[in-house]
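Section 3.1: Structural characterization of target chains.
Under the original work plan, the team committed to producing a structural model for every single-chain target entering the pipeline before any wet-lab resources were allocated. The record below documents one such target. The sequence was received from the expression subgroup and is listed exactly as submitted; it comprises 184 residues.
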Amino acid sequence: MSKHRKSLLLIVGMPGSGKSTAAQAAKALGFRVFSFGDIVREEVHRRGLEENEENVEKVANWFHSGREYLLAHRLEKKLRKIHTAKPFYVIEGARSPKQLKELKGHFNVRILAIMLPQRIRWARQLARGRADIHTTEDASERDARESRYGIEKLLARADWRISSNCNEKEFRARNKRFFASLLK
């Protein structure tokens, strides 16, 4: 490995916390943003499946049944081919300590946790109209699945935390200030 390893900033958070909004702020400032969800969707297509929530969830569960390292490995291969002038790549949606371990073997890794109380996250998920979230019980089941993947361990290891318990304009401003501060 070279002395000058690329760096990653992982955006982590429970479902509905605001990870995608944080990633959008990074992208607006010119950071290269990638998502573990993109890797899952690529596998859906590789298998010749229709990209729908059922197939994406099925493939995500396949990755998270002892193959978490494989998600990180595929992301690592993709990042090796891409250049960025920014201090790091931004990765949205890491969920497990196994992914973190795999990535740390190849990159300098820092973690940004997006935090939001459960009841607000669930209300946001219900308002989004996702096909798999119709009730708070559905949201609770999704949280349980994320917990089985190990998301709480990543949240506990965060280098930074941003609360999204505010209006959208303020949350976007918080993220913009955070990512801009990393460029100084």
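The chain has a mean pLDDT of 91.
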